[in-house]
UniProtKB/TrEMBL annotation:
InterPro entries (UniProt xref): Bac_surfAg_D15, D15-like
Protein name: Translocation and assembly module TamA
PANTHER family, alphabetized: BACTERIAL SURFACE ANTIGEN (D15) DOMAIN-CONTAINING PROTEIN, SORTING AND ASSEMBLY MACHINERY SAMM50 PROTEIN FAMILY MEMBER
Domain Bacterial surface antigen (D15): 337-635
Pfam families: Omp85
Main localisation: membrane
Assigned GO CC terms: outer membrane
Signal peptide segment: 1-29
Domain of life: Bacteria
Lineage, highest ranks first: Bacteria, Pseudomonadati, Pseudomonadota, Alphaproteobacteria, Hyphomicrobiales
């Protein structure tokens, strides 16, 4: 089924409920005296947080960098711990002096990172230079103690003569960002070193390293001469993989899931993939790979893996509310490591329509899911699911019991395929009457995903291809459901403040007529996940009562301009379009278009989203506007 969230004119209050539940959980803790949400302190005093500081001493910082531009001033302020921690006192005079000395080192490093190799940082405390203060100095005057940081940034250096020696002598320095007249910042030099070493490691040389670094700053010409000597080391294979830190997760299984076969040629990319694969098991908080500093007797490189485990059990509850859909409640319980080899079991259930529907028309669903990774190699995963649904959307009344089992396989880090066998018994009452179905199907799926961030991408694209041959055992009807979807993301500036996002989806059902396809398997469009501004399932053919009946084909497209106003707040103007047809080919002569603007608040678990949209070519029964809320980008 294609389409979105809740009907137009409906604003989900799930976020409000999450805040309320979070507040309740904190309140139950009893000893909590302060509470902060998304960086905003809702209650509590900073004095409470300072109670553990011995001999608290407050200070006030002034940073002066008269010859620095705004960007450099911002970098220096961010590098200053004195500035960032100004609201929190230090432990006595000794603590203030220690913090100031550490701050000076950080500020000098920030100047070097900006290629300011003549920069000078001078810090005074209570009017006295830091270097002139005795170790037992005491600041007895009134608080806060004045701290002044004077920074003479000096000229910005550029790269001068660049030489690569040793086993890197044949490499072109420009390929690694070292170009005469180019960026001479310390970060650029260190990045180039890392790229050179990685290039050699990608040849199968795990011991490649920089053995000598000569950096000469010519103050007369403001240039930086760089000479790097690199030792590549021999080509080697993987040696023994040893795992430490496992407790309830099987150690041999963890080693197996790395996929690092003894004797196979070493690859840093394969090491990175192995780490990601272990983290994807969801049983580890952290995974660290460390290569030995020498080869073993067989000429292979031993690999050490250090892990820390997560708690195996998890659970959660949630809720939504709208003035037309009523109250919805959901909950789940799961186990991440059921038999010791990262087998996952999850049980969930939900009920919705409370207060809006009659008790006999509430919506229910419940399910159980089991996953077992590594069944035919580390890149594979077996899964089995069982789900029952009783729902009453506008388009139909639906009861079903569905079971499926299948296998997914990661062809590469960016490509995944899956296949499953499914059996679904359902009773449906829709515009074509009451029907029973027993559908056997084989869903097949391919996904290519090279997005730079799955929660909030700024570059890359994702392509999905889906095919589901199906057969109704009760009626003998056979049909094939096809769907393709693609989304692309492009940053229009170096800081990714402007990101253009595009999405296209198309689907078709062939082999039978509309009435022989169960209503829940037809295509629908409209709502927060498809064409905003229209009601959920509100686009497409309808029966004589005005209720949607679904279609045999659909087409949707969306374009968004994601504009970052600050690091956490953004606005998103967008245009969506879609159509649903009773034929197996989309009807592009009846495309519905919606447009609007959204607000985003970036959090560690994805952007919080609120979108407001209007239909641009509405029918009389379409809403005048729609408001949608959720977590994560629209696509």
């Amino acid at each position: 089924m294609s389409g979105g969230t809740a009907p137009g004119r409906v604003l989900s209050r799930a976020l409000l409920l999450v805040m309320i539940c979070s507040t309740a959980l904190v309140a139950e803790a009893g000893d909590a005296a302060a509470f902060e949400l998304f960086g905003i302190k809702l209650w509590g005093s900073s004095k409470d947080e300072d109670a553990d500081i011995v001999d608290p001493l407050r200070y006030a910082v002034t940073i002066s960098a008269p010859d620095a531009d705004k960007d450099l001033v911002k970098k220096l302020e961010n590098a200053s711990a004195l500035k960032s921690d100004e609201e929190r006192p230090v432990s006595g005079s000794l603590g203030l002096m220690a913090k100031a000395r550490s701050d000076r080192e950080q500020l000098v490093a920030a100047l070097y990172a900006d290629a300011r190799y003549e920069g000078v940082v001078t810090i005074t405390i209570d009017g006295k230079p830091l270097d002139d203060l005795p170790p037992d100095a005491e600041f007895k005057g009134p608080q806060p103690v004045p701290v002044v940081i004077d920074i003479a940034s000096g000229p910005k250096f550029t790269l001068g003569n660049i030489r690569l020696e040793g086993d890197a002598a044949g490499l072109m320095s420009a390929d690694y960002g070292l170009i005469a007249g180019g960026d001479a910042g310390s970060g650029a030099v260190l990045k180039a070193e890392a790229l050179i070493v990685r290039a050699l490691k990608q040849e199968g040389r795990p011991l490649a390293k920089v053995t000598d670094r000569q950096i000469v700053a010519d103050h007369a010409t403001s240039t930086l001469d760089v000479t790097l000597t690199v030792a590549a080391g021999p080509v080697a294979g993987y040696g023994d993989t040893t795992v430490e830190g496992t407790e309830k997760v099987d150690r041999d299984f963890t080693e197996y899931m790395t996929g690092l076969k003894r004797g196979r040629q070493y690859s840093p990319d394969e090491i990175s993939d192995a780490r990601d694969r272990l983290l994807a098991l969801e049983v580890f908080n952290s995974v660290t790979f460390k290569e030995a500093d020498k080869l073993d007797a067989d000429g292979n490189i031993p690999i050490g893996v250090q892990v820390s485990e997560r708690k195996p059990r998890f659970f959660g509850v949630g809720g939504t509310f709208s003035n037309t859909e009523g109250l919805g409640l959901e909950g789940y319980w799961g186990h991440r490591n059921l038999f010791g080899r990262a087998e996952k079991l999850r049980i969930d259930g939900a009920i919705s329509g409370i207060g809006s529907n009659d008790l006999s028309e509430l919506n229910y669903n419940a399910g159980i899911m089991f996953e077992k990774p590594g069944v035919i190699g580390p890149a594979s995963k077996f899964f089995a699911r069982f789900k029952t649904v009783l729902e009453h959307p506008d388009a139909y009344d639906h009861f079903s019991v569905k079971g499926s089992t299948g296998l997914s396989y990661e062809l590469t880090k960016k490509q995944t395929v899956s296949a499953e066998v499914s059996l679904d018994y359902s009773r449906i009452h829709d515009a074509f009457g009451k029907h029973k179905y027993l559908i056997a199907s084989i869903p097949l799926q391919y996904v290519y995903d090279n997005r730079d961030n799955r929660l909030n991408p700024t570059g890359g694209f994702r392509i999905l291809a889906y095919a589901e041959p199906s057969y109704d055992i009760l009626s003998g009807a056979a049909f094939l459901k096809l769907k393709g979807e693609g989304s692309a993301y492009q940053s229009l500036d170096s800081a990714s403040k402007f990101v253009l996002a595009e999405r296209v989806a198309v689907g078709s059902i062939v082999g039978t007529s509309l009435e022989n396809v169960p209503a829940d398997r037809r295509f629908y469009s409209g709502g927060g996940g498809s064409v905003r501004g229209y009601a959920y399932q509100g686009i497409g053919p309808k029966d004589f009562t005005g209720q949607p009946i679904g279609g045999l084909s659909f087409f949707e497209t969306s374009v968004e301009m994601r504009i970052a106003i600050t690091d956490t707040i953004g606005i998103v103007p967008f245009v969506d379009a879609g159509t649903v047809s009773t034929k197996s080919v989309p009807n592009f002569s009846d495309v519905k278009v919606g447009a609007g603007v959204g607000l985003r608040y970036v959090t560690p678990f994805g952007p919080l989203r609120i979108d407001a949209a209007v239909p641009l070519n509405r029918d009389p029964d379409d809403p005048h506007f729609g408001i949608y809320a959720g977590i994560g980008q629209a696509f």
